[in-house]
Amino acid sequence: MSTENTATAAAAAHDDGAAGSRPTPQEAWETLAEGNRRFVAGDPGHPNQNAERRSTLTSGQEPIAVIFGCSDSRLAAEIIFDVGLGDVFVIRTAGQVIDDAVLGSLEYSVDVLKIPLIVVLGHDSCGAVTATVESYISGDMPPGFIRSLVERITPSVLAGRRRGLEEIDDFVAEHVDQTCDRLVETSQAVRDAVEAGRTAVVGLTYSLAGGTAQPGRVLGALQV
């Protein structure tokens, strides 16, 4: 099948408003994984990015995944997974740190929008994780509200140190995994959705150079 046809088929498969049914966590993951493969190959299909798609979304949305990722400008979810309007519900904070607004947004996504897949998306060379590791080593906290970011990432750095980690990118992967665990531990709504099989959680670490999104922690009924 050609790349254009593959992209068209993928778009049709997750155009839930037209299909009238929700994808499983596995189907949602496979759509994102295939989109990332097209992006890495340099041959994206750009599905669901036209005026027709825009007009179909005026009455509501049925995204297939919620992507909770770092705010880094190089980590644009719709681009790296080759999806379009209405396909993903995106939440972004520096270092993908959790706060009340993030938890509220995630609970809305699983309880109201019935989204079957939560993706926690980190990336290599993350500045927020780097700042936290440097703070741990030096004992000095950064000024202003950057300190709040560091404080929220510090538990992941401590967990990494207990495992003997040294490299920043290893701490990034650890932080992604720890964030997946914290989401399920902190939010009753997310935990209930995962335990019921309605939603799964997967942690991904994105390569800025290669464009790939490598899986880490998986919680729920999902094969990656």
From TrEMBL:
Binding site for Zn(2+): C70, D72, H123, C126
Enzyme's top EC category: lyase
Pfam families, A to Z: Pro_CA (PF00484)
PROSITE patterns, A to Z: PROK_CO2_ANHYDRASE_1
Obligatory cofactor(s): Zn(2+)
Keywords on record: Lyase, Metal-binding, Zinc
Entries under SMART domains matching the protein: Pro_CA
InterPro entries with a match to the protein in the record: Carbonic_anhydrase (IPR001765), Carbonic_anhydrase_CS (IPR015892), Carbonic_anhydrase_sf (IPR036874)
Region feature (Disordered): 1-27, 38-57
Physiological role: Catalyzes the reversible hydration of carbon dioxide to form bicarbonate.
Protein name according to UniProt: carbonic anhydrase
Originating organism: Micrococcus endophyticus
